[in-house]
Specification:
With 619 residues, the chain is of the alpha+beta class. The longest helix has 39 residues. It is 46% helix and 17% strand. This is UvrABC system protein C. Keywords: Cytoplasm, DNA damage, DNA excision, DNA repair, Excision nuclease, Hydrolase, SOS response.
């Protein structure tokens, strides 16, 4: 059974409301490979598993034998079981990973890593290729290098490469319409192809050298630059020779920082799985073309009572569900059913994948480094957890709550004189900031600058959705603002008939200085001002400042996008090429607005009817 047909079958079965007879279900169960799905009350998916023999595996749950506390807790909720038969165990493994990724069942190992990692892209479809950061599908024509574990690591690499090869990073519309070189040229991070400061063939050679270097052929790239330096010196072009000398020095520095001693280069992911005090951590180190690109620590959830091989198998299938699989995976714990997992990864990637637990040489040193990073990340997380619990204890004491809060949320509004208003909602728990739960709201149908109405709308939309989805509500909600904002937040919760949430408004006080905030709580006769060094105030400031940061970045992005949209986009028949032709012909939007019908028709691609439409739009 293919993945698509399996999912369609699942959707059809979910619509069925027939009573479930467990005994009859087990008696008629097939012995073929496939997946099984366990549902609780309200058709809530509790667990997805795969099996080589469905009858034997599913029956084992309901026979009289010992189970872990986690499994017993799940079985107590199971009201319905469904199976999907597949051709092979490998196909079942892939389908299991897809369903876990989509539905996040509460009793499966969950990996909170849905993001796509960034790549460095050098496009080759243009005369003067651009170097850029790229996420998502690789549809553009060019060379992709990565993935990088974080945008910061990629940006740092791009800066070093700009210094060495001076490739342009500007977008195509900017590049095509420049009349003078930009700041990047002035600080010697771009060779100025937009205004003809470099010949096409010279730029092409720089691009080829950059590609050689990124592909691991650094010695070849440096040798080529050395030849160009010597040639320039022989022609008495000492300025060009000095530039090539500086390029070689920059590349040597990059080699010192990034090179991993490995014969023959290659693409590897080094995966170290470590457990301490019942908590698992997985550290993935990315090595591409023999060069270390960095690493990332991941903390799988719902791993109680599981052994390392099971955790590793669940991790590999989920992690590479939406990511490129390198040709070599170095791991410290072999996964359960390793041959099946390898076969599934090969089928998914379309190329050979070798999984190995290194025992000697450079690969063992890489594994030791990944293991050290994993232990460090786990201990750092433990320290953060202690700090997070202390944070919650301080808030519990300050607000006199009967129980320790598990979730705190904070709202803030950001706009520029009412333009492009955005509300932020940040979430904190015992482990600190829960960034995957952050949300932004583009404020709609509100008078510009009305922060009171904006807060009410954001609170209503946030908790209306959580209420509809049956998600947990926070114990404490902070509002960046005074009594007015607080009252509107109360009104939103009252409309939703939600009570039991501790509200608190945080206003900046008369001096608007940090440490002088006024705290407004419903039921208090007046606002309170805590000492600047009060631990509870410091916690509230930290959460409020994070909401402020998140709101500002969202607002700036929305404002920038709205200001980049041209009035010409609202005219039917005007696409990107015609818009650019008009702006180029008349020197900007004002020139287009002032142009007559005859002038408009002289622009390539603008016929009489379209010219009339443009003229009518502005007049």
């Amino acid at each position: 059974m293919t993945q698509q047909s399996s999912e369609n079958s699942a959707n059809q079965e979910l619509e069925s409301d027939a009573p479930f007879d467990l005994r009859e279900f087990l008696r008629t169960l097939t012995s073929q490979p496939g997946i099984y799905q366990m549902y609780g009350a309200g058709r809530r998916l509790l667990y997805v598993g795969k099996a080589r023999n469905l009858k034997r595996r599913v029956s084992s749950y309901f026979q009289k034998q010992r189970h872990s506390p986690k499994t017993l807790a799940m079985l107590a909720q199971v009201q319905h079981v469904e199976v999907l038969v597949t051709h092979t165990e490998t196909e079942a493994l892939v389908l299991e990973a897809n369903l876990i990724k989509r539905h996040h069942p509460p009793y499966n190992i969950l990996l909170r890593d849905d993001k796509s990692y960034p790549y460095l892209l050098i496009e080759t479809g243009e005369s003067f290729p651009q170097m850029s950061l790229h996420r998502g599908t690789q549809k553009k024509k060019g060379h992709y290098f990565g993935p990088y574990p974080a945008v910061t690591a990629l940006r740092e690499s791009m800066v070093l490469l700009q210094k060495a090869f001076r490739l342009r990073t500007c977008e195509e519309p900017t590049f095509r319409n420049r009349s003078r070189a930009c700041l990047q040229y002035q600080i010697q991070r771009c060779s100025g192809p937009c205004v003809g400061h470099i010949l096409l063939e010279d730029y092409a050679r720089d691009v080829n050298d950059a590609i050689r270097f990124l592909e691991g052929r650094s010695d070849e790239a440096i040798r080529n630059l050395g030849e160009r330096m010597q040639q320039a010196a022989e022609q008495l072009n000492f300025e060009e020779a000095a530039r090539r000398r500086d390029q070689i020095a920059a590349l040597s520095k990059i080699q010192e920082r990034q090179y991993v001693a490995q014969a023959g280069g290659g693409d590897f992911d080094v995966i170290a799985l470590v457990q301490e005090n019942g908590q698992w951590v997985i550290f993935v180190s990315f090595i591409r073309n023999g060069r270390q690109l960095g690493g990332r620590a991941l903390f799988p959830q719902h791993t109680e009572d599981l052994r390392g091989p099971d955790v590793m198998a669940g991790f590999l299938m989920q992690f590479y569900n939406n990511k490129d699989v390198p040709g070599n995976l170095l791991i410290n714990i072999l996964p359960r059913n390793g041959a099946t997992v390898t076969e599934a990864l090969i089928a998914q990637s379309g190329h050979k994948v070798v999984m190995d637990a290194p025992q000697r040489g450079p690969r063992k040193r890489w594994m030791a480094m990944a293991h050290t990073n994993a232990v460090g990340a786990l201990r750092q997380r433990t320290q953060n957890a202690h700090a997070g619990r202390r944070r919650m204890l301080l808030l519990q004491e300050f607000f006199e709550l009967p129980e320790l809060p598990q979730r705190v949320e904070c709202f803030d509004i950001s706009h520029t004189r009412g333009e492009a208003a955005v509300a932020s909602c940040v979430v904190f728990g015992e482990d600190g900031a829960m960034k995957e739960a952050y949300r932004r709201f583009n404020i709609r149908d509100v008078t510009g600058g009305d922060d009171y109405a904006a807060i009410e709308q954001a609170v209503y939309r946030r908790y209306g959705r959580l209420q509809k989805e049956g998600m947990a509500l926070p114990e404490i909600v902070l509002i960046d603002g005074g009594p007015g904002q607080l009252a509107r937040a109360e009104a939103a919760l009252a409309l939703l008939e939600i009570d039991g949430i501790q509200l608190c408004g945080v206003s900046k006080g008369t001096t608007r200085r940090p440490g002088m905030e006024l705290l407004h709580v419903p039921g208090w006769p007046m606002a309170r001002q805590l000492p600047p060094d009060d631990p509870a105030l410091l916690v509230i400031q930290e959460i409020r400042d994070e909401a402020h940061r998140f709101a500002i970045t969202g607002h700036r992005a929305r404002r920038s996008k709205s200001r980049q949209e041209s009035d010409l986009d609202n005219i039917a028949g005007i696409g990107a090429k015609r818009r650019m032709a008009l702006l180029r012909a008349f020197g900007g939007l004002k020139g287009v607005r002032d142009a007559g019908l005859d002038d408009l028709q002289r622009v390539e691609g603008i016929h009489q009817e379209l010219a009339q439409r443009i003229y009518d739009h502005f007049h």
